[in-house]
């Protein structure tokens, strides 16, 4: 019986390159679970969370296909903090259960939980170590605007809802500075990966 993999939390602000880093770890055979994917799974049609959301916010948050209209919902909850709190209260425990289930299937020496809200929610409690992908704020804004076709104001609003860069860095065990190109990112992931392979499931 091999020991249970220890869990690395991978986080970073919007536009920091979390997904690219996670893909580089996955390419090395590391089991990764993305909290954003888990957040989508729990609101799929036919799952109880979706009907509770529709009951509270009305049918306009549903697409014709019966799926959740994320943009419409986001619009409502970003404007009303108390509605966002209600939604988070409903979804966070469900997302947590989903993540735990998927992490428990890991066969690799360590597994990764990728989450933009790792440090803002109780998700970090599931991890033994935290890796922050860090980029300067100006780069976050440029990258996100380019990728999602949104303006700077919107990007800043999302950044406001996330932990500040200082807070993230203060809680990091490891920091990956992703302010160069993909080749640099690959090298950094390889360096960290080799280090993580030396850690047991109870890293200091």
UniProtKB/TrEMBL annotation:
| Enzyme category, top tier | transferase
Q: Which HAMAP family match?
A: Dephospho_CoA_kinase
Matching PANTHER family, A to Z? BIFUNCTIONAL COENZYME A SYNTHASE-RELATED, DEPHOSPHO-COA KINASE-RELATED
Q: Which Gene3D superfamilies match?
A: P-loop containing nucleotide triphosphate hydrolases
Residues noted as binding ATP in the record, renumbered to the chain: 15-20
Q: Indicate yes or no for the key word ATP-binding.
A: yes
Keywords of the record: ATP-binding, Coenzyme A biosynthesis, Cytoplasm, Kinase, Nucleotide-binding, Transferase
- Domain of life from the UniProt record: Bacteria
Q: Name one GO molecular function term.
A: ATP binding
Which InterPro entries does the UniProt entry name for this protein?
Depp_CoAkinase, P-loop_NTPase
In short, the EC number is 2.7.1.24
Q: Where in the cell is it found?
A: Cytoplasm
Which is a GO BP term held by this UniProt record? coenzyme A biosynthetic process
What is this protein identified as?
Dephospho-CoA kinase
Q: Which pathway is this protein assigned to? A: Cofactor biosynthesis; coenzyme A biosynthesis; CoA from (R)-pantothenate: step 5/5
The reaction(s) this protein catalyses:
3'-dephospho-CoA + ATP = ADP + CoA + H(+)
Task: Note the SUPFAM superfamilies from the entry.
Answer: P-loop containing nucleoside triphosphate hydrolases
Which GO CC terms are listed, alphabetically?
cytoplasm
> What does the record give as the function of this protein?
Catalyzes the phosphorylation of the 3'-hydroxyl group of dephosphocoenzyme A to form coenzyme A.
Protein family = Belongs to the CoaE family.
Pfam families recorded: CoaE (PF01121)
């Amino acid at each position: 019986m091999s020991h249970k993999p220890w869990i690395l939390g991978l986080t970073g602000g919007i536009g920091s390159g979390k997904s690219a880093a996670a893909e580089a770890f996955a390419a090395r055979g590391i089991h990764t679970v993305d909290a954003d994917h888990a957040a989508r799974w729990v609101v799929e049609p036919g799952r109880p969370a979706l009907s509770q959301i529709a009951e509270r916010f009305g049918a306009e948050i549903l697409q014709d296909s019966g799926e959740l209209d994320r943009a419409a919902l986001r619009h409502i909850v970003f404007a009303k903090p108390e509605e966002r709190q209600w939604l988070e209260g409903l979804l966070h425990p469900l997302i947590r259960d989903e993540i735990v289930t998927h992490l428990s299937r890991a066969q690799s020496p360590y597994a990764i939980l990728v989450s933009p809200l790792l440090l803002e929610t109780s998700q970090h409690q599931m991890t033994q170590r935290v890796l922050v992908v860090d980029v300067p704020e100006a780069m976050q804004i440029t990258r996100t605007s380019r990728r999602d076709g949104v303006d700077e104001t919107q990007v800043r609003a999302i950044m406001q809802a996330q932990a500040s860069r200082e807070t993230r860095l203060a809680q990091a065990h490891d920091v990956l500075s992703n302010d160069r190109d993909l080749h640099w990112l690959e090298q950094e992931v390889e360096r960290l990966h080799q280090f993580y392979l030396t850690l047991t499931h109870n890293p200091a």
